[in-house]
Amino acid sequence: MINQFTCSSCGFVVEVREGMERYAVMDDGVKKGLDPENEESAAMALTGKTMRQLAEEGKLGVWVEALCAGCMATVMTDRDADPRKCPECGGQKLAAAYELAGSLCPKCGQGMLGSEEEELFI
Ligand SMILES: [Zn+2]
Ligand SMILES: [Zn+2]
User: Which ligand is in closest contact with the Cα of 70?
Assistant: First the structure.
């Protein structure tokens, strides 16, 4: 599900996917997200290996989508394994969806980011 946050001051809108997703590491080191509905066959299609083989090789991880306060890019990041650093700009302020709600707007630094979740369901 997509979480949308809007700044109360400048109207800046952030859209960040909520929740964790498993990823597999390809032979060349590139990480690819696995379809949560069907991780096993996604893993097989991408790497030719089962989830179990990947786990044994240490090639499975969990990442979340996060917003970089430096360049406003949304990036996938593994909170345990990856350096807390934006691959786009090198900035170190990455915030996942659950950290964005009620936080200071990275764009104007004045308003608060509020979730419009409720309104979306009306
Ligand atoms: Zn703002
Ligand atoms: Zn960045």
Answer: 2
Q: What is the mean pLDDT of each run of 10 residues along the chain (122 residues)?
A: 92 91 95 95 97 97 94 93 92 91 93 72 46
Number of domains in the chain: 1
Long-range CB pairs of 96-103 (<8 Å, 24+ gap) are: 96/16, 96/64, 96/65, 96/66, 97/3, 97/16, 97/17, 97/18, 97/19, 97/64, 97/65, 97/66, 98/18, 99/66, 100/3, 100/5, 100/14, 100/16, 100/67, 101/3, 101/5
Ligand nearest to the CA of 72: 2
**52, containing H or E segment:** helix 51-56
Range of the domain at 28: 2-120
Q: The whole model's pTM is what?
A: 0.81
User: Residue 8 is encoded by which pair of tokens?
Assistant: 């109360």
Interval between CA 36 and ligand 2 midpoint (Å):
26
| 3-state SS class at 18 | coil
